[in-house]
Amino acid sequence: MVNTRQKGNRSVRKARDYYEEQGWKTDVVEKTGKFIFEKDLYGLFDVVGIKKNQVIFIQVKTNRPPTREPFKDFAKDYAGKNLRIQSYTWYDRRGPIIHSFLSSGKITKKDLRK
């Protein structure tokens, strides 16, 4: 039986490793606890990264991409030149797909699977 918390933590580590290889300084922003109901930053993001004068908010998922609407809405309001909104979906034994949400409402996809 698979421990879903361990599986999620592995995906977050892989995402952080990927972004740190790209030059980002990352940290996990999830809060944990029995009575904490909103665990993610703004209810959407697991990891935040900074690089020079840029910030990136990242949602990490495993084997299934997140629902796009909340990220599109957030990106329309806040994404821009210095703030990026992305989802990193890790597919077991294959690799990641990264979706970028732009302020225009457009979504770009970068497939890094093997």
Reading side by side through the largest sheet, how are the strands ordered? Answer: 1-2-3-4-5-6
As a percent range, the share of helical residues equals: 25-40%
Largest beta-sheet details: 6 strands, mixed
The number of helices is: 2
CATH class: Alpha Beta
Beta content: 25-35%
Low-confidence stretches: none
Number of domains: 1
CATH architecture assignment: 3-Layer(aba) Sandwich
CATH fold-level assignment = Trna Endonuclease, Chain: A, domain 1
* Shape, per Cα inertia axes: globular
How confident overall, as mean pLDDT?
90
**Could you give the distance between the termini?**
26 Å
| Number of E-type strands | 6
Give the H and E element order: HEEEHEEE
Rg is: 14 Å
Structural class: alpha+beta
What keywords describe this structure?
114 residues; alpha+beta; Trna Endonuclease, Chain: A, domain 1; six-stranded mixed sheet; 6 strands
Description:
The protein is built from two helices and six strands; from the N terminus they run H-E-E-E-H-E-E-E. The mean pLDDT is 90. The protein is globular. The protein is of the alpha+beta class and 114 residues long.
Topology:
Layout: H1 4-21, E1 25-28, E2 47-51, E3 54-62, H2 68-78, E4 83-91, E5 95-101, E6 107-111
Parallel strand pairs: 3-4
Antiparallel strand pairs: 1-2, 2-3, 4-5, 5-6
